[in-house]
Amino acid sequence: MWIGIDDTDSRNAGCTTYIAFRIVSTFADRIISLPRLVRLNPNLKYKTRGNGALSIRIGNRTEETKTVIGKSDGKKISLGLQNNEMEPDFPKTYDNSMIEQVVGIVEEYYEKNQTNTNPGIVFSNKKFDTDIYRNALERDIPVDYIEEILKKTDSIYRKIGSGRGIIGAVSSIAWDRNRTTYELLNYKYPRGGYVDDMVKTIIGKIAESYDSTFNNMEMKEGKVCLFPKDRTPVIYGIRGLVFDDLIQIQEEINSRFPDFDRNYMIFATNQGTDDHILRLESGMELRELSSYEITGYVNELPLRKEGGHLFFGIKYGVTDIKAVAFEPSKGFRDELEKLEIGDHVKLFGSYAKGTIKIEKLELIHPSIIYERRSPLCSRCGSRTSNIGSLKYRCIKCGNVMEPEYVKTNYQRMTMKLEPPAYARRHLSMPWKLENASFRSNEYEF
Ligand code: ATP
């Protein structure tokens, strides 16, 4: 049986991953896959933060060999993970007592009395089609559409409030794990609490010392990016490509700071995979709320506007598109500000109202900058003076000439730019992972 959960937190408290952690801690002996933290369309207005949805897979029996994926109240969480290739040994009927217990856990921990918190819990004996996951990355899916699917597949579901969370719950189950990364989340309920800056730096450096991790620190600014604002049960989250490395990092942290050895768990995720990015082929129309890789030429110079957001224009085929880098991306804007007319760029980001919100950019081919000069007279070799309308007249013989254009010494290199780690989108693949090999098998670590 698959369990999907979403929309249980508010801006100020709670976290759906923590609810998944409680469920996994309770039913570890029946869970057959890593819990999954799946990020969905980053362009939606409903999201509280990172549009994350959770799913868990329950089997009738688990493998003999156990894999430790974390600790709950200081005790190991060990799962008997089944190979993805194997037909999951799902029961034909639903285990109602388990369903009630899971619903009970969600009811205990979701953020109550919040209009924007509308939990959805889904139980399904069938895995949902990957197309639903793709749609959930690219579009705004109506609740009714998901409810239809749930009815057709004889799934059981609970809606609290409007129950909009069923969209994320189903989409998380539908994730194909084609490209997988991992995140170790360390918890203290109800809030992560204060952590000293020195401790943060040590933990950040431990994580950063492993080549398989990403988005840990912004080295230039010495900023650690692992610790979210102290509003939720998450103390820190460490992201990486290699499951075993995350376990080792946690062990190193435990040896320095035993307080962090109580509650943590590793999730399989689609973070850092660019799964949401569609490659835009020439002639394709951009669709509202989808995310793209677009190649074009800068046709409008970068300009900072109110709020510190930086805008410029590109020409993609025959279409003019605006691009924006928002204020929180800080130094990224300074780099983008150096773009020149004619630069050939590839940019990645989500599209809405004629504008791409840039997640990263490659300067593929910088345009060559020419300087306009007054030419020497072609008849007598004397100097010329500017007479307007891009014309120059010889000061001796009156010959009228075109301007001369001279290549400047101002050389720019091709380059790959991205916001600092603390301002990246969860789904966005950092340039560091560009050539990484992502795990795709449920069983492989
Ligand atoms: P997180 O759990 O990381 O805090 P979030 O808080 O940003 O995520 P939620 O509170 O889960 O976001 O709210 C997002 C809401 O949008 C959920 O109700 C989810 O079901 C819904 N949703 C997710 N993807 C889509 C989509 N593609 N179309 C329509 N609704 C969606």
How would you describe what is shown here?
This protein is α+β, with helices and mostly antiparallel strands and 445 residues long. The protein has three domains: 1-274 and 428-445, Alpha-Beta Plaits (2-Layer Sandwich); 277-368 and 410-426, OB fold (Dihydrolipoamide Acetyltransferase, E2P) (Beta Barrel), CATH 2.40.50; 370-407, no CATH class. The chain contains eight helices and 25 strands. Strands 1, 2, 3, 4, 5, 6, 7, 8, 9, 12 and 13 form an eleven-stranded mixed beta sheet that branches. The chain has a five-stranded mixed barrel with strand order 15-16-17-19-18. The protein is elongated and about 100 Å long. 40% of the residues are buried. The model has no long low-confidence stretch (mean pLDDT 92). It binds adenosine-5'-triphosphate. Residues 6-7, 9, 16, 40-41, 44, 46-52, 118, 136, 139-141, 164-165, 167-168, 171 line the site of adenosine-5'-triphosphate (ATP).
Identify the notable features of this structure and list them briefly:
445 residues, alpha+beta, Alpha-Beta Plaits, OB fold (Dihydrolipoamide Acetyltransferase, E2P), 3 domains, eleven-stranded mixed beta sheet, five-stranded mixed barrel, 20% helix, 30% strand, binds adenosine-5'-triphosphate
